[in-house]
Design brief:
- It is a single chain.
- This protein is of the alpha+beta class.
- It has one domain.
- It has 1 helix and 4 strands, in the order E-E-E-E-H.
- It is flat.
Length: 82
């Protein structure tokens, strides 16, 4: 079965933005299934367009901004599915 974006429900999403990258922490449930936390990175290309990249390593500044978002996401994971 192919992924269907219409079945992917976000119950939380916040982004930490930096000069040339942004990291988004979200909580998603696919087709009414278990909620899961997703952490993704987007990098700005030289022509100013955003593209997804592997999260990989984070510098201290990024980690300090993302940890509070992860804590908020954990609270969302504790809530029952709607």
């Amino acid at each position: 079965m192919a992924f269907d974006k219409n079945l992917d429900k976000a119950s939380f999403a916040e982004t930490a933005a930096f000069e040339t990258t942004k990291i988004t922490v979200g909580v998603y449930s696919y087709n009414g299934g278990e909620k899961k936390m997703q952490i993704s990175r987007e990098n700005m290309s030289q022509n100013g367009e955003w593209s997804f990249a592997k999260l990989g390593r984070m510098v201290k500044e990024e980690a300090e901004a993302v940890i509070p978002l992860m804590q908020k996401a954990l609270k969302e994971l504790e809530k029952p599915l709607e």
